[in-house]
Structures are given as C-alpha cells and as structure tokens.
Model the fold of this input.
Amino acid sequence: MIMDSVIGGILSTGASVKNIGVLPTPAVQFYCKKNSIPGVIITASHNPPRFNGIKCIDMDGTELERTKEEKIEEIYYDNKFHIAQWQHIGTEIQDNSAAELYINGVMERIDLNKIREKKFRVVFDAGNGAAFRTTPELLSRLGVSLVTLNANPDGLFTSRESEPKPENLKYLIELAKSGEFNLGIAHDGDADRAVFIDENGNFVDGDVTLSIFVKNYIRNGEKVVTPVSSSDSVDDICKEKGAEVIRTRVGAPIVSRTMIDQRARLGGEENGGIIYGDHQYCRDGAMTVGIILDIMAKTGKKLSEIIRDIPEYHITRKTFPRNSDFSIIKERLISAFPGWEKDERDGIKLRKGHDWILARPSGTEPIIRVFTHSREIETSRKLSEEVKKIIS
Ligand code: MG
Done:
C-alpha cells in the first residue's frame, strides 16, 4: 500500500519510476549508484512489523543528507508539490536486474577462487527479511554448502524479531553449536547489517567483526571511520598498523559522509553495520558476508581463531526510557565520575583508561542508550549498574 502510494506520488510529479522489487537496502543503493538515479526504499530496517519508513537515497547511492531530507519534509508539509499536467505524468517500469547487479558487485571485491576452494559450510537465518534470495544466491555462487532458516519473505516477521541480537537468533545459534558449520550468518530486516556465529556457536559481537575487518583489510596510512560507540580494539589495531581512526557521532549516514570526505576505505558500527568504501559508501550485509568469507579463506583460520587475534574488550548495552531533559542526566553522570575525560560529540562519553561510559539520547525513539566498555566483562557490567542507578 505504501509502495503504491509512493509510486503514484512520484508519477504525478512527472517523474518516472523503476520498480525493482523486494531487495536488501544496499542492493537498492548499489543500483542507484550504478545508474546514477535517486531511490526510495520502503523499510523499517530492524524494527517491529508495525513500523515502516520511507528512506530516500541520493544519486550516488548514499543515504540522503539531513539537509536534503528536511527540504523534502518542507515540500511535503507545505504542500508545495509539482503536479504534472495529465499528458506529462511519469511511467512505471518493472526492472528485475538489481539483484544480479548487486551480487556481481559483491563478488568483484573478493577472492572467488580461494573461497570456493574452501567449500565452506554455512547456516544462514534470513529472518523473513529482504535478503531471502540475494544472500543464498551469493553463497551458492561462492561454492558454499548452505542451510537456510526463515528464507520466506514475510513482512510480519513471524519467525523471529528482526534485530539480529543473540536472544532473537536462538535456532541459528543452536544449529551452529552442532559443529557442522564453519559460519552462521544473520541479517536485520533490510539486510544492511550482518552478524556472525563462529564454528562453535558463539555469537560474534559487531565490534569484533569490525575489528577483524580492520585487522585484515587496512594498511599503513589508511583511515577507518567509526562512531564513538564502538570498541577501543579498533584504535589498538590501527595504532599497530599505522592507520588513523576517525570517530564520529552515532549514525550510519554520518559515518558514510565522513568516509567520503576523508577518503577512508573502511567504516562501521558496533551493531554489525560495515561500510566498505571500495564497494559503496553504505552499510552492506552481503558485502560483509563476502569479506568475512574472504578473510577466512585467505588466512585459512577458523573464525574463533581469527577472533583470538583481536584485542578483547566488552561493551554492555542498555536502554532507558527518556522522560526528562537529557542535560540533567548528563550533568549527573559528569559529577558521578569526577576526573574522567569528557567527550561531548554525541550525548556524553566519559573515559578513564580503557573504561568508558557513553550515554546518548536515541534519534528515533524516546529512550537513552547507554554503553559501558571495559577490558573485563564484570567491570563493564558494574559500570552499567552504576549508570542505571543514576538515570533511575
Ligand atoms: Mg537495517
């Protein structure tokens, strides 16, 4: 219904529409980039099925800048639409080429022969989402022997909640624990993110994935962009390699824009959203899958062995309802942790050595997100409890 309304609205302005079907968000973005046309995606990403959204993509495939989004909102709310005369309305064209274009785009960036030689065994949980066809197709072409779960598209997400966190992936994790697979994979609903389960059935945190990519793909003098919310392991690895880390506010579009401005090759978030600039400047679930297999093939190591080389940090994540002014919470936190270094780029981040606390108001929901980071899991949990008391 929403898609038909959006298409009708665009046609009425005199523009034409290519309807490319149900696809992962990054497949649409890649299509926009390759064809230099703007795009619209109807998706609520990882959110529960009662939510939906209209997401606009620029002609280079990146998410629209905030200023341009505001311009669209202004036109919408002020009713300043251009309406074409009847003989000038646009036409709708079906185009089924986007999936092929996207899969080939990912395959161009990885070592196909090395991956195929390994004959990986993979279990993939599509979670009824948009990558139900593209990711299995990619994996098949990589010579992977594949078991899929929930690969039936279903906008009600009846199999599992769409956010790929461990509590929503229990069947995938259970299967991965059988020892039959080299890798478990899950996406969020629109498949711009990918998370992994190692060969022993352990959930791999998005931070660890980002660090693995930095370790294996980044060379001396290159730049990595990541928000203030991701782990210090990125900094440790970059220091060792002579690469630079650029920290931004939280939000994939901000990371993408900064990567373009800074000519950075790799960017990413702690939630499994990885941006590989050589491919395209947006989070990309299938590209993330391609890269992890590429690294596993080239190193000849199991995923758990690759993880062993990554500096170990723990982040505890909590959310709290936001029912008062955030500045009050911010001041309370600052006074509760005297002497801790302050970073006010996004919410408040307080740091002492490798221990840090980040509290920030969500941009999409009336909640406060709290991250507590430490070398030891107990310390990160303890910090989280302390913050909880203050916020309560
Ligand atoms: Mg998403």
User: Anything to note?
Assistant: The CA atoms of residues 166 and 209 lie 15 Å apart. The first strand starts at residue 17 and ends at 19. The mean pLDDT is 96. Residues 2-96 form a domain with the Alpha-D-Glucose-1,6-Bisphosphate; Chain A, domain 3 fold (CATH 3.40.120.10).
